[in-house]
Specification:
- By secondary structure, this protein is of the alpha/beta class.
- It has 3 domains: 2-108 and 253-318, 3-Layer(bba) Sandwich (FAD/NAD(P)-binding domain), CATH 3.50.50; 111-251, FAD/NAD(P)-binding domain; 331-418, no CATH class.
- Helices cover 23% and strands 26% of the residues.
- The chain has helices spanning 11-23, 63-66, 132-143, 164-178, 200-206, 209-212, 256-260, 300-318, 373-390, and strands at 2-7, 29-35, 39-41, 60-62, 72-75, 78-82, 87-90, 95-97, 100-103, 107-109, 126-127, 148-154, 185-190, 215-218, 223-227, 232-235, 240-242, 245-249, 252-254, 285-287, 331-338, 341-347, 356-360, 364-368.
- A 5-stranded parallel sheet has the order 5-2-1-9-20, covered by helices on one side. A 5-stranded parallel sheet has the order 11-18-12-13-14.
- Helix 4 (164-178) links the parallel strand 12 and strand 13 (185-190).
- Helix 1 (11-23) packs parallel to helix 8.
- The longest helix is centred in the last third of the chain and has 19 residues, at 300-318.
Length: 424
């Protein structure tokens, strides 16, 4: 019996386990998933909980219930991977051997990595929504917050769902308008990037959205510390941004066991081949979803498209054949813009977001880089799709690789850039 061990029972780990269970000979393979607890969280819902759109119960299900009954699920905290021995040790002393290891433990917000973030203002005037507890606590804070200087800050990239901080700003704008107190809130968006939108075509599509909503932007802001006494962000170039309420996105890092195991980079992300997700160090290890270092958006859609390609490659790999399929970094994200509307972007390693129709050329029904009600409804509908289609490993009628059909390729700078980046 060959042993497939999957570390992490979240989005990527669950999809991989359920899809591979259907493909592998169960008389020859045993699939085991290890995670710390039985709570599978719908992380895109964290954005909505502070505004009362979702309740905590709507973003949580049992891991056991989301995994095929034939998949073994074990609970425990991972201590270390010993790749030369092909073994994983848990902190409770248990040990698991593997023939193939999949690391799908994602990334987590690390407020401990920024001076002052866990100071006296933490969970009082300093909040985050990138964790379940953080989102729940922020929801309570916003219920009776009287107003003042609201600052939304990104510490550094990469982060899970890079557009979520912008979405938070847009949703906050609508939330305070609905409460009749928008005039009592001064909003500033603080980013380490050159601007709120860094891709030219997308930036043009968003136009003056932030200005129109009265949201100031402080760009190229590399956060050095949070001054708890002053209640201010302090950058390395000594700029200060004061706040009454700070909603920050802490540094996102992979899990510590990856660093202890010598498998990660400085952010505990596993270096992999960006087309196949196999470790650059060991041909018995793959890293999927947010746990790897591919130059793609850390979004759930990337894990979905990536795993569709990964399954085909995995079957070739265990058969001793060359992996012939190439993931192109395809990402697809709804961007809430407030007022019951959203934009939709579709891009990959080689092509920035372009205007057009999605998913069907000339038909849509969704518009790319254009605000619409249907895009907002699509984002809300995704929660049902997540639980009932993606997690069980069912097929979606969407191509895993990005298509240029239906997109404004005439906006690309050269004819050469219009050629398909990858064919797989």
């Amino acid at each position: 019996m060959r042993r497939l061990l999957i570390l992490g029972g979240g989005t990527a780990g669950t999809m991989a386990a359920n899809k591979l269970y259907k493909e592998l000979d169960q008389g020859q393979w045993q699939i085991t998933v290890i995670d710390a607890d039985d709570d599978h969280r719908y992380q895109p819902g964290y954005l909505f909980m502070p505004f009362g759109t979702y309740k905590p119960s709507q973003v949580t299900k049992s891991r056991r219930a989301t995994l095929n009954s034939g998949v073994d699920l074990q609970y425990g905290d991972i201590d270390v991977v010993r790749p030369e021995e092909q073994k994983v040790s848990l902190t409770n002393g248990r040990e698991f051997a593997y023939d193939i290891l999949i690391i799908a433990t994602g990334v987590s917000p690390r407020p401990d990595q920024t001076d002052g973030m866990l100071g006296a203002q933490w969970r009082d005037s300093v909040h985050e929504f990138y964790s379940y507890d953080g989102s729940v606590t922020l929801a309570e804070k916003l219920k009776d917050w009287p107003g003042g200087r609201l600052v939304i800050n990104i510490v550094d990239m990469p982060i899970k769902c890079p557009v979520a901080p912008l979405e938070f700003a847009f949703l906050a704008d609508g939330y305070f308008k609905d409460k009749g107190m928008r005039d009592k809130v001064e909003m500033t968006y603080v980013t380490p990037l050159p601007g709120a939108f860094t891709k030219p075509i997308a930036a043009e599509a968003f136009g003056t959205t932030l200005d129109d909503k009265g949201i100031a932007v402080e760009s190229d802001f590399m956060l050095m510390e949070i001054d708890n006494e002053k209640k201010a962000l302090v950058s390395y170039d000594e700029r200060e941004v004061p706040f009454d309420l700070l909603v920050t996105v802490p540094l996102n890092m992979g899990q510590d066991f990856i660093g202890r195991s010598g498998l990660g980079d400085e952010l505990n992300l596993v270096p992999v081949d960006k087309f196949t997700q196999i470790s650059t160090q060991f041909d018995t290890i793959f890293a999927l979803g947010d746990a790897n270092n591919i130059p793609a958006s850390k979004a759930g859609s990337v894990a979905h498209f990536e795993i569709d390609i990964f399954v085909e490659n995995f079957l070739q790999h265990i058969a001793g054949a060359e992996m012939s399929h190439k993931f192109d970094g395809h990402a697809n994200c709804f961007i809430e813009t407030g007022g019951g509307k959203a934009m939709l972007i579709d891009f990959n390693y080689d092509y920035e977001p372009l205007p057009g129709k999605f998913p069907y050329a000339g038909v849509g029904p969704m518009n790319l880089l254009k605000e619409s009600r249907i895009n907002h409804l699509g984002k809300l509908a995704f929660r049902w799709i997540y639980w009932n289609v993606l997690m069980p490993g069912r097929s979606m009628p969407l191509p895993a690789l990005m298509s240029l059909k239906g997109k404004r390729t005439d906006l690309l700078e050269t004819e050469q850039e219009k050629e398909p980046a990858l064919s797989a």
